[in-house]
Design a protein that fits this description.
Pyruvoyl-Dependent Histidine Decarboxylase, Chain B, EC 4.1.1.19, 2 helices, 18% helix
C-alpha cells in the first residue's frame, strides 16, 4: 500500500444522498465505491492530510476508507472529525472518527477523547496525535453533509 490520504469536504443539496455525493465531490472521491473499514493504520504506511484527493484510479472502482460523516436538514450545523496517531518507529496506528449535528470544537474534543481511549486499549507507545475537522452551516430547505475520510492507497477493481 502506498499512502493513506486524509480528505475532507462539505456540501448542501436538496436531498440527503445528493448532499453526501456533493460532499464526496468536494473531497475528490465522488467517482468511487467506498468500502468502510475499522480504524487501524498498518505499519510503515504514510498518512498525509491532503484536503482534496488526487486522481486515485478509474471511476467505479473500490476505495477503502475510514469515514466520519454527518448530514443534517437545515437550518442547523454539522461537523465531522477524524483523529489519528501512530506508534513509535512507523509501527501501526489508529484512526478515530466522530460526526454529529454540533460545532467543530465539540467533535474535535470528542474525537481526541476517543482516540485516547483506543490508545489505552493497546500496548503500543504512541506519538503525537493529529486531527482534521470539517464543519458546515446548513441553510433552511436543504440537506448539508460534512465528512472527513482516510483513504487507503488507490482504487482497486470491484470485479
Amino acid at each position: 500500500m502506498s499512502t493513506i490520504r486524509i480528505v475532507q469536504g462539505s456540501a448542501s443539496a436538496p436531498t440527503k444522498m445528493a448532499s453526501y455525493d456533493a460532499a464526496l465531490a468536494d473531497a475528490g472521491v465522488e467517482n468511487y465505491n467506498l468500502v468502510a473499514v475499522s480504524s487501524v493504520i498498518p505499519a510503515d504506511v504514510d498518512v498525509e492530510a491532503v484536503g482534496t484527493a488526487p486522481n486515485l484510479g478509474p471511476a467505479g472502482e473500490r476505495l477503502t476508507v475510514v469515514e466520519a460523516r454527518a448530514t443534517t436538514a437545515g437550518p442547523g450545523q454539522v461537523s465531522a472529525a477524524l483523529a489519528w496517531s501512530r506508534s513509535a518507529d512507523r509501527g501501526p496506528g489508529l484512526f478515530y472518527e466522530v460526526a454529529d449535528e454540533t460545532d467543530s470544537d465539540d467533535v474535535e474534543h470528542r474525537v481526541l477523547e476517543g482516540l485516547a481511549a483506543g490508545q489505552d486499549l493497546r500496548d503500543w507507545e504512541f506519538g503525537d496525535s493529529s486531527v482534521a475537522v470539517e464543519h458546515s452551516q446548513a441553510e433552511a430547505g436543504v440537506y448539508t453533509t460534512s465528512l472527513v475520510l482516510a483513504v487507503y492507497g488507490e482504487s482497486e477493481p470491484i470485479c
